[in-house]
Amino acid sequence: MRLTILGGGGFRVPLVYGALLADHAPGRVTEVTLHDVDAERLRAINGVLREQATDVPDAPAVRATTDLDEALRGADFVFSAIRVGGLAGRAADEQVALAEGVLGQETVGAGGIAYGLRTVPVAVHIARRVKEVAPDAWVINFTNPAGLVTEAMSRHLGDRVIGICDSPVGLGRRVARVLGADPADAWVDYVGLNHLGWLRGLRVHGRDELPRLLADEKLLGSFEEGRLFGTDWLRSIGAIPNEYLHYYYFNRETVRAYREAERTRGAFLADQQSAFYAAPSWASWDRTRAEREATYMAHNREASGAGERDAADLEESGGYEKVALALMRAIARDERATLILNVRNRRTLAALDEDAVIEVPCLVDANGAHPVAVDPLPLHATGLVTAVKAVEREVLAAAESGSRATAVKAFALHPLVDSVTVADRLVDGYLGAHSGLAYLSRGGRRKDV
Ligand code: G6P
Ligand code: MN
Fold it and tell me: Where is the signal peptide (predicted)?
């Protein structure tokens, strides 16, 4: 089994390789090809993987290349985890928005739109190459904004691209644990878009345990989302939102906290990682990772008074490599599994069309990911989901046409951007910050990437 990792010089690749090293079952991945546009980062991560593989006799073979077609040829699975523009790009996404007084964040609000506008053309190029060079490969997309990027790729690859995120599984695990249930026994009733979903129930042995949690003030206030959103608000909406909904429900507070912060998350990670890539080693990778996890969503927790993260959460945080591996296993070995994934809607949410990529529990087997039927979302959640999907569609349209006006429309329609004038200035700000957005000339057409 051959796995190709796009963004192979990325900081999280050792997590994926670590999960592969622990898999000794038949049908496991035996060859890994790392691809990256940055040869130096590729060399650094290659070296870390070599250290990881020491004393593991059946460690998957690793090779690295900067040639995309060469990386894709012969792949059974393509794992796409790229960061167009790098962490400097992320920091600029955050900074330009915050300077306008709106949320600057990796995937949500104006920052997420800018990131999407930069990433979609590259993701489409990759999808086209996969179709040409490795048409039978399954593509697992972790590239953010994951829902939008998966939808862009699915226009070329159909259901052979599946988007993943670790946040719904983390949420399900926390809710199960606080209820004293084994996460493996729980059916998590969760649906929405990526980073915009709600857990509406958690069924164990045929019984929904969520009402018990909502009714118990002490229990509800004892875990991450209870502290982040406040118990009253969780009871008001009768569901546990994805942590990224903090940016919607507490927009003012997070914008203020982010503006007052010394550095944005992207700037912090950029500093941290330039130190790591200057002298890469397994030990310094592990230290850097621990520090990164300890500071995850720190400003949101500060803004809400939620305090420190739980020790159990810190130990287990991330987990996207586990989702990726579980997905690969279910497809490659036809071992049926239920996973929360980003796939085409079909008829799951009535307010969206069939091709809209949503995040929903799916049954996975050798034929891919099949979304399960879920209860409809309440009106306020449907409103947010349709508003954000409309924004995503404008981003896809702008990436295709190169129209500046369409890009302005994408920003202006977002629920966290409160003025068309601001949207217009944001486009100017991002055009100044990112050479990768030069294709958005007034009414001009984008040259193919
Ligand atoms: C979670 C989300 C990812 C996101 C990451 C950001 O894992 O699911 O989509 O990229 O957090 O973490 P970072 O440490 O980069 O701020
Ligand atoms: Mn995610």
Answer: none
317 CA closest ligand 1 atom index: 7
Classify the phi-psi angles of 192: left when phi > 0, otherwise alpha if psi is within -120 to 50, otherwise beta. Answer: left
Pocket of ligand 1, candidates 13, 84, 105, 106: which has the most ligand atoms within 8 Å of its Cβ, to mutate? 106
Euclidean distance between CA atoms 44 and 56, whole angstroms: 20
* Within a domain: 386: no
Are residues 153 and 31 part of one domain? yes
Q: Tell me, in angstroms, the distance from the centre of ligand 2 to residue 244's CA.
A: 9
Cα-to-centroid distance, 143 and ligand 2 (Å): 9
**Residue from 345, 46, 327, 318 nearest 192 by CA:** 345
Give pLDDT tens digits for 279-308.
999 999 999 999 999 999 999 998 898 888
Stated as kind and residue range, the H or E segment containing 203 is: strand 196-204
273 and 240 share a domain? Answer: no
Look at residue 447 and tell me whether its pLDDT is greater than 60.
no
Whether residue 347 lies inside any domain: the answer is no
Residue identifier of the C-alpha nearest atom 10 of ligand 1? 144
- Helix-strand-coil percent breakdown of the chain, rounded to 5? 55, 15, 30
pTM of the model: 0.97
How many distinct structural domains can be found in the chain? 3
* CA 197 to ligand 1 centroid distance, Å: 16
pLDDT at position 313 is 75
- pLDDT digit string (tens) for 409-438? 999 999 999 999 999 999 999 999 999 999
Q: Is residue 224 part of a domain?
A: yes
Clarify whether residues 23 and 158 are in a common domain: yes
If we measure between CA atoms, which residue out of 381, 138, 123, 94 comes closest to residue 249? 381
Cα of 198 vs centre of ligand 1, distance in Å, is: 18
Residue 91 lies in a domain: yes
pLDDT in tens, 39-59: 999 999 999 999 999 999 999
For range 192-215, the mean pLDDT? 98
CA R_g for the chain: 21
CA distance 119 to 184: 35
State whether 36 and 145 are in the same domain: yes
Domain's final residue, options 108, 131, 163: 163
Cα→Cα distances 420→27, 116, 414, Å: 53, 19, 10
Range of the domain at 279: 255-304
CATH for 61: 3.40.50.720
Indicate if 180 and 154 belong to the same structural domain.
no
